[in-house]
Amino acid sequence: MATNLLNRGAFIVLEGLDRSGKTTLAYLLVKELEQRQIPVEFMRFPDRSKDNVIGDTLNKYLSSGIELNPETSHMLFTTQRFAVKDQMLQKLMEGKVLIVDRYAHSGIAYSVAKGLSLEWCKAKESGLLRPDIVLYLDLLPSEGLKRGNYGEERFETVQFQEKVHNAYDQLLDDSWKILSAHDTPETLVRSALSNILRACELNAHKPVELLYQSGRLDEKSPLKERQPFRTNVLSSQ
Ligand code: 2DT
Ligand code: MG
């Protein structure tokens, strides 16, 4: 076991179709972890902040205010993730659990649903931090319709969500835990929490891996020694 690694936090991603309950579950999980005195931070992608140019552009795109071709929108979403990669690693190394509402898998699934190839999309996400767990909230595409405010945004049609659902299926790997979005919040929290606590224990002394790459971050060159990349323009965090 590596001895030069402090207890790092676990990197947890919540994924699923629109209206699958990711954000609600994320908030409940943060509360549960805080109650247990486990350091935790919540993040979400995309960051729609109007005070950064990419966030503002994506916000307009999602609410159908502007058009972008699929490659352009894909790369804007991806850029936001790379822009905070170092900050995310820093937080994990400080022992914080990261609860992240959507990540690279949304990026790939929604772009594949638009017709881009899986390989092209995966290549763009390669080199990001790899989540320890992806908690996937499995929702029938037709069920989303019955949940509140459906249809307000660009991708909220049953036909499109069906394509996203199929695309998510192609991303499943051993880091995924499938939860039924139809379960009660109490059941979801219980099951998600037990997965998270196990991941905290299992990964505390393991280096963070990289997504869709075989390499790992070099344990001998801690992030602290690296010059942080200036992300002020891209990120409000
Ligand atoms: P919400 O804010 O309701 O989660 O909607 N999306 C998201 C992409 O197309 N690519 C991405 O990389 C990410 C993170 C999914 C955000 C919408 O943006 C889509 C729904
Ligand atoms: Mg949405």
Architecture blueprint of SSEs:
Layout: E1 11-16, H1 22-35, E2 40-44, H2 53-62, H3 70-83, H4 85-93, E3 97-101, H5 104-113, H6 118-125, E4 133-138, H7 141-144, H8 158-169, E5 176-180, H9 185-203
Parallel strand pairs: 1-3, 1-4, 2-3, 4-5
Helix pairs in contact: 1-9, 2-3, 3-5, 5-6, 5-8
Characterization of the model:
The protein is α/β, with parallel strands linked by helices. The chain has one domain: P-loop containing nucleotide triphosphate hydrolases (Rossmann fold), CATH 3.40.50. It has nine helices and five strands; from the N terminus they run βαβαααβααβααβα. Strands 2-3-1-4-5 form a five-stranded parallel β-sheet, sandwiched between helices. Mean pLDDT is 91; it is low at 219-237. The structure holds 3'-deoxythymidine-5'-monophosphate (2DT) and magnesium ion. 3'-deoxythymidine-5'-monophosphate is lined by residues 18, 45-46, 62, 77, 102, 106-107, 110, 155.
